[in-house]
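User: Predict the complex.
Assistant: Input components as received:
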Amino acid sequence: MLKSDWVPMRWPAAWTDASRLQLVRRTPINCLVGETAPPFPLGELRFLRLDPASPPEGVVLVEGVWPNVKTARRDPNAAETGPTGAPWVDSNGWRIRLAQALNPGKTVWLTYDPPKGSEVVPPAAFAIAVAEAEAYGAHWVITLDERFRQGLENSSEEAVAAWNKIAAVLKLSAAHPEWRTFEPVAPLAVVSRFAGDSEFLSREFLNLADRRGLAYEIVPLARAGQAPLSKFQAVLYLESGPPEGALRDKLLDFARQGGLLIAPAPLGPGKPAETRFGHDLYPAGKGRIAVPREAWSDPYVLAGDVHLLIGHRRDPLRIWNGGMMNALYLASSDGQRGVVHLVNYSFRSTLDSVTLGFPRPYQAATVYTAEAAMPVEPHKRRLGVEFPLPPFSTYAAVELRG
Amino acid sequence: MKLTATTSTSLSRREWLAAAAGLSCARSVRAAPEARVALARCPSYGPHLAPLLAKMFDQIGGIGPLVAGKTVAIKVNMTGAATIRQGHEPAETTYWTHPDVIAAAVHLIGRAGARRIRILESFAEGTRPLEEEMLIAGWEPADLLGAAPCVEMENTGFLGYGKKYHRLMVPGRGYVYPGFDLNHSYEECDVFVSIAKLKEHVTAGITGALKNLFGIAPPTIYGVAAGPDEPALVPHGGRMMFHTGYRQPSRSAPQEIDPASPREEGYRVPRIIADLAAARPIHLAIIDGVETITTGEGPWIAQGRARKIHCVRPRVMIVGADPVATDAVAAAVMGFDPMAERGTAPFETCDSTLALAEGHGLGTRDLGRIEVVGTPIRDLVFPFRAYS
């Protein structure tokens, strides 16, 4: 077995009885991690001592955050609103994608623990953590808290249902390895070191772009010189100074061929033709170069401005009634197949009326959830096709064809 | 009756209403119609809307003299956010004015000789161009921009394309505000059109041509994040101060006449609507009642309501030059008595916007003074409250 196929779980130290293995034998989990190996034979299961300083070969460890919708302090049933006006969500999708981009060929494992302290986390919330990681092509090192662990020991209905959902999500992910070969469908390439003086702005840009539905592909600066850019409508060069040398020439050529280059400073002499969304627009051949009137500082403002500079007409995916979720749209290299991963960050609510819209005229779709798979028919609309989705609670993968 | 932009001055209406109020048996004696409202059955959206609306415009006297050579501003209803739907149904068939209705109106106004047409709406968050908001909703803005020559769009929730806010005062004395600071497009126009949706409203009873004007107030001055002294640069949050009166607008704008007045939204919202409609008079009201929802103004009101939201098809279009009369006919079509006062449906928990607008001299809500042309109301009544 390739190490990238390992599906990890942190084995509770309190589980010293081999009968507990029955729990994982019904799932794709095949790798137990912990401080010490369980005191019984593991059979086909592997055991790893997880050392952040020395991760397993082929694996990148990312700390991450507990994924959830922030609730308002006064009302635990109400979502706290973030600067986007939509509910504030703590998510890891962008972290996973960044780690994948910076470490090509490696599998990302998220290693965060469930919340500690006074917060009571229902078992259902653990399925979100698993689903998010799987949707983005990674794994969360499944880590039970005391409540969930004891619930499983006592076979509580709530805990068993949550565990079964986790198993179902893992099985769904394992059953579709081809989805992990698909590429993001995005009009925007974000070029940056994602480190140094651009670290905060660049990383938070990715986070907020996810929340506002701005589709992007990450291009690490070190590989930007070799990266094909012609498939993008826009390139955001997210550094504090303008590109230099060969990369400058390449990005300039991208603009001259009709692309939109968004850079922190002008790439040469000239006067802007117009100002839009906080940026001066310089003509460059068939395209344009957008330069901020004031240095970028607020990632929320930047994400909004970039989205408008590109224009919503370029959105490859439109989503209605999806405020509590993030989406990742991937497609095969020939564009004939696609998948949209949808992660609902609220364990309190079922998303019962999400609609997806595509400019691409997909002919058919199948919605996979932890519970079922069902076909959905396209509805022709003014700007393409729409698929009304059946209700789902934690995760749905919408496979597209045609 | 020819429509012109100068016939609906508030003074003449106020004088007329004052005289009418002096008649002790005003409602029992059938006076000459003060307003004419066209009412038509409209089975669906589509290309047939343009000829239907053309006929309705003719029925109220024609729009040529009103719009020829003029700049026409059209306030549409795109309340809420473009990413929110009632179930899977698009916003335009539930709680927004449908783009086919807007396109038909724009086309006819352009054909009647308008020099320039501006489609206007504001949003509580951000400064996105109106075209972008339409794209998010799944609309093609080019359909509207191309419906007539010289069509523009503007998000009026902030300064927009203007250099300063323009002050429009309520003639006489306002109920809550003496006037409002608005986006330039509401003053830099000769003719003002309100294209609304036939809906109920949880705070104001009904949504119509008048309530549609709630959205002309920029959230940079009247929203949650309005600047304390000067307008904010970017809208961030809705017009809660209109509802609860918890704060005053930016000090640069006219402040409330009486800050000690009731802070109850059923008192405030109808009065502010009437004030807005008096400050920015409507010359032409168009109400899209082809497809809509019951119970309230948008999907977000569902939580905690005893009544569910139903997607319904009243299949009506309503057009008038008197916005109060047009809304009164709309109320009657919805199964309500437009003369109803507070405590009676649809104004169970609020004062009647229709009565308050009438008090401002903006028109009449008395069906006895309204000539309904086209299809009689009784043939098109669609009782919204039959849906629980």
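The radius of gyration of chain B is 19 Å.
Let me know if you want any component modeled separately.
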